[in-house]
Amino acid sequence: MTENLGVIGKKSSQRTGVERVVNAPLPTVYGEFSAVGYLDHDRGEEQVALVYGDIGTEDVLTRLHSECLTGDAFGSQHCECGDQLASALRAVVAEGRGIVVYLRGHEGRGIGLLAKLRAMALQAEGLDTVEANLALGLPVDARDYGVAAEILRDLGVRSVRLMSNNPRKREALLRHGIQVAEEVPLLIPPCENNITYLRTKRERLDHHLPHLDAVAHWS
Q1: pLDDT tens digit string along 104-142?
Q2: Is 154 annotated as catalytic?
Q3: Catalytic residue among 118, 143, 161, 170
Q4: What's the pTM?
Q5: Dihedral angle of Cα 72, 207, 78, 100, to the nearest 10 degrees
Q6: Could you read off the pLDDT of 132-168 as tens digits, one per residue?
Q7: Which end of the chain is more exposed for a tag (fewer CB within 10 A), N or C?
Q8: How many CA atoms lie within 13 Å of 142's alpha carbon, on the beta-carbon side?
């Protein structure tokens, strides 16, 4: 992969894989990151990795964060995505080094924004998040983490300390040749609006959410 400081172009029919396009400083409320931009030629998606400090190659504190417009930008309490993103950014700054790979094309576990909103409407009528996707004729989870593994390899990362409650992320990275030295829980206190969603993620999607056991006052 080579770095090209020009403007991101259209998907090339000749190129495949992930290409590093640009590296720009990104000062944030959490700290100053390097925003490393990539183009996924296979899917036409633009991706970004936020890199903090001298990350090295081994045991790099890493978050693979699936795009969630409603949670990340609008502060939705339907999920915990926005809080997880903020917590991950704070964690890598506290660590002194780390990466947050922001995965576009993962909206609604890969079904897209409008389909996610349709699923949320069904959940408001009583279906859980798994039932809602299936009722729409959509996969429960259509996300692919191959792009994330390619980005990590381009950044020189061989093993990560993965901030995630989702065992499928670990399994996916291992399949793509990135070692997972440790799984670091990213547990966000639930609220009344997302407790049912979080319990469904634990019970039906195998997410590790042991802190939900302490919540008994919401049905």
Answers
A1: 999 999 999 999 999 999 999 999 999 999 999 999 999
A2: no
A3: 143
A4: 0.89
A5: 0
A6: 999 999 999 999 999 999 999 999 999 999 999 999 9
A7: C
A8: 15
Pair of tokens at residue 38 = 């990539």
The residue count for the chain: 219
User: Please, what is the Cα angle at 148 between 156 and 136, to 5 degrees?
Assistant: 175
Catalytic residue among 141, 154, 161, 170: 141
| CA distance linking residue 150 with residue 130, whole number of Å | 29
